[in-house]
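Continuing the batch. This is chain 6 of the set; chains 1 through 5 are on the previous pages. Same settings as before, nothing changed between runs. Recording input and output for traceability.
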Amino acid sequence: MGKGTKPTTIISASLGAGCYLLERGFDMAGIMLPFQWALVLWIIGGFLILFAFVVAIKVYIFPFLRTIRIMRIPQKQEAELKAVQAEETTPKNIREEIESSQVVWGCWHTGAEINRQKLVKTGKIKKILLLNIQLGYYQSILFFAEFAGRQKVERAISEIKELTSDAIANGISVKWYDTPQPNTFTICDPTPNVEGNEVVPNSSNAWITILVSEPLMEGDKRQKIRIEKKIEPERFDKYLEWYRKMWNDDRHTKTPQPEEYEL
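Output for chain 6:
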C-alpha cells in the first residue's frame, strides 16, 4: 500500500473486482464454502477449549486451592484444634489422673483433696511430699492456710497429719519439706517403664499436673497446667529432677515420725 492509498480506495477496488467476477460467471460460492467450514470448525474448537478449561478448573484447580487453604490454617486454629483433642483424652480431676496412672508422685501443701477422696487407697500413689508441720515451719503453713481461705492454721496441720498417717498405713512413702512451693504438682508415671522390648526412664505417656496457687480458692477450683512428657520433655524432666533432688535432700526434707503425725 502506497503512502497515498486510502482504505476506501481498497474497499472500492475489492467490490469492483467482485462485481466483475460475478458478471463473468465466476463461482463465488466455491470460494466462500471453505471459509464457512473453517469458521464452524473454529467455533467448535473454541467451545471444546472452553469446556476443557472448565473441567480443568473443577478437577484440578479447585482441589489445589482447597489444599492450599487447609495448609494455611492459622497456627491459632491449629492450637485450638489440638487443645480440643487433648481435652477429650485428658483426665478431668485428680481421681481420674491417679487412677489412670501406674505410679504417682505428689508434691502438695496439705493434700486436702487427696485425703478427702481417700485416694491413698488406689494403690497408685507411691511418694508424697507435704509441708513440714514442725514448730519452726508454722509460718509457711499459716501463709498457705490463709491464702487458700481457711481461717485457722490448725485445720491445715490436721489435714497434713491425717494424710501422712493414712498414706503410711497404705504403704506410701511420705516426707515433709520445709521449702514451700507456691504451686503444687502431681507427677504421673515418672518411674522406669518397659515399652516394647526396652526399659525407658519413664512412660512416654507420663505427665505432670500443676495446680496454680490462687487466693481464696480450694484445690479443686484452682487453675491447672498440664505438662506432657512427649510434648514438652525438657520441662517435664526439670520437674522430675527437682522432685528427686528434694526427696533426697536431708537438709530440707524429713521422714515424719509417728509421734509427729498421730492425731
